[in-house]
């Protein structure tokens, strides 16, 4: 679970180590889930696992290379329908569709990992510093992040892609460009969540005591605040992973993708299949598109289930004999599902909603 | 492209506002509107500034667009004529002044003011966005209510997977599949464009057209043209609308479940109010309020989605045009359109926030 693993390391271990793996995110939720929710979580985990395995084993699984145009029998030919040699047909450029779909998962995974690692570092650090020290820096950062957040993320990613690579590039250039473009979009999300948590935790008695004992700012921030502020991260990570794929595909579809000879990218292939669709050629678009849908579906199912399990209002309860009591809402301010200025925020004021 | 993440961050302000509200001891609607209005300026300023410096960090737009096609001397002359050789800070201040007076620059490739591009193509995007929102409302709200009511039973499971699928499918892939099935497969609907050539020509004869084809076609009074325009709109509207429908469905579901568990619903139930009425009147209506605020966030999502949908369906709107300028490497146009969209998004969010405050007094702070 490459997308989940980084979070696992940062999870607050409030309980002693003997409860160990059961407290890990995902494992814990899996044990806590029941019925339909467990089904959704398991389905999501299976899809995610298939995606990861495909990405890791791409050279073994793919019958041809992603940029291979011919084999011993000669050229593949363009827009060939599915056959014994090419199970999913060939593209307009004469590549094997199946191989490009398989290799596309590699590109997607690399972009996700780079984007999440970068935005996690930047967003968490900024949110922590901003929330902890407050003052004018905090205000400026909040306004900047709000402004960036309100902006269409795809347009922001386009601007970043232009800046980084001028529009087109080699494999690593393209992967980095896509990942950094996505990072810029994500930073405000991590920033907001971590900052809100930090502001809350800052007022706790144990932070006060640490200060009295003479702990430095850095120590308090990392040991006392950060460890307790990361509860929501696994959830945001899975959701952002799926968003990263969609943004990457969107960029690729608009022609900001990676050159077909440098790596396989699903969005780019869909862009090339646009003209095929008009003439009824379906295999060049359906397969890369389905790959995107399945991966995003898997990641979203995992994220969704984690969200629902974390919210007591949404969690299906199993009968009373279980010892495994669920966590209360991990989301500051209530449910993720509640809208902006939503009822979750308002409920606390105890109003009559009608 | 955000759903749950949007909702997550969207939930934040409410939570942060709570202490602010009590600290300031309330405050009237007037003060709220004023503060909210003043917030537009830093938002727009930050975005315009960010986009300017990001775009300019790659070099000047003329070299980007024409580099390689002109000799070094010609290029240098063009750059100098356009004033791109001056210090960046001077250019920035000039640009800021221009933006403040409503001048977003002139495109390099076809020498049109960016504001004119917006006026020409913006209406098409607006039309598409309206259709998409309509689809989203029609699908999202009743199904969200149904899912909440049938919570954890099979209709709920089916609808939730549907909502996640709406989110998981990129709009351009939805568009491609719709095209494959209904346009090139079954041949029921046109493949691309906003109207057939014949209808386009007829529409051009109209005096002072609104640019919104449906309105123009109705004014023209030709039923064939109206049908033609509507036929062209169906697939793009569904492709873009499904994206938002999923968000609405989930939001309505979560909120109805939330309100169903509240004290006053319980109280009404104990008074003997029928379940049906309970759902319809007591739980459902307050659950709709957050939707109004989410529409504000959807504007940003729709803008991004419109770029992709319009490219898929050759719908000649702002997004399609933006993609064209990107292909032509006309970064003045890209920067102008992006900056202008920033203004539109900021203003729309302002309007939506005000509407939300008018409907629900608890939003004000």
From TrEMBL, chain A:
It is a multi-pass membrane protein. GO terms for cellular component: plasma membrane. The chain crosses the membrane at residues 40-62, 108-133, 140-164, 170-191, 233-258, 281-303. It comes from the Bacteria. Residues 317-336 are annotated as: Disordered. PROSITE patterns: ABC_TM1 (PS50928). SUPFAM superfamilies: MetI-like. It is found in: Cell membrane. It holds the Pfam family BPD_transp_1. Keywords: Cell membrane, Membrane, Transmembrane, Transmembrane helix, Transport. Residues 105-303 form the ABC transmembrane type-1 domain. One of its GO terms (biological process) is transmembrane transport. Belongs to the binding-protein-dependent transport system permease family. This is Peptide/nickel transport system permease protein. It comes from Geodermatophilus sabuli. The lineage of its organism: Bacteria, Bacillati, Actinomycetota, Actinomycetes, Geodermatophilales.
Automatic annotation (TrEMBL), chain B:
InterPro entries: BPD_transp_1_N, MetI-like, MetI-like_sf. SUPFAM superfamilies: MetI-like (SSF161098). Residues 1-24 are annotated as: Disordered. PROSITE patterns: ABC_TM1 (PS50928). It is found in: Cell membrane. GO terms for biological process: transmembrane transport. Its main location: membrane. Keywords: Cell membrane, Membrane, Transmembrane, Transmembrane helix, Transport. It is a multi-pass membrane protein. Pfam families: BPD_transp_1 (PF00528), BPD_transp_1_N (PF19300). The chain crosses the membrane at residues 31-55, 117-141, 161-182, 233-252, 287-308, 332-359. GO terms for cellular component: plasma membrane. Residues 122-356 form the ABC transmembrane type-1 domain. Belongs to the binding-protein-dependent transport system permease family. This is Peptide/nickel transport system permease protein. It comes from Geodermatophilus sabuli.
